């Protein structure tokens, strides 16, 4: 039997309704019902909801950063070892590895602040590593032992930096001029062959780094 609330059982005190004992019991029962919690959750302020979303985003960003760091740190060390694979770089390899890490940090900061894709990961690209490694080894060989080691390493770093800046400017101008569509005129076998050689170069560099044996040519693999 449902209780009936008549006007005689309700008193107004200070503009607020007050029920008698039966009415107060009913209100307490309604406040403890499952539907009451759902109604209270719908009454959350936008500020509390925004704070919850902000904290959730911070946690996700921190966890993603930790995972990406765990994956990319060994990759950066391997890239540095492959780029500076010339024997003359062995003494300065720790410092050169730090430079590779620093360049990746700068790359990521630029992407995060200027790119329309802030979630992209900035690192040394494996597609251009072939040219970087070839240039570094060629410059060291061309200068020879007659030039002090510090000057040779400085020359290599300056050349790599200049070439990287020029390539970056070329890519920016290509994007601004809407010329990226001309890439489709390149034959597909050419692009496929280049990407295949990138994979071969990475495998060769990884095997050489793991075994400590320089795999300069196929004839020397036996």
From TrEMBL:
InterPro entries: Membrane-Transporter-like. Keywords: Membrane, Transmembrane, Transmembrane helix. The chain crosses the membrane at residues 57-84, 96-117, 129-147, 153-173. This is Sulfate Permease (SulP) Family.
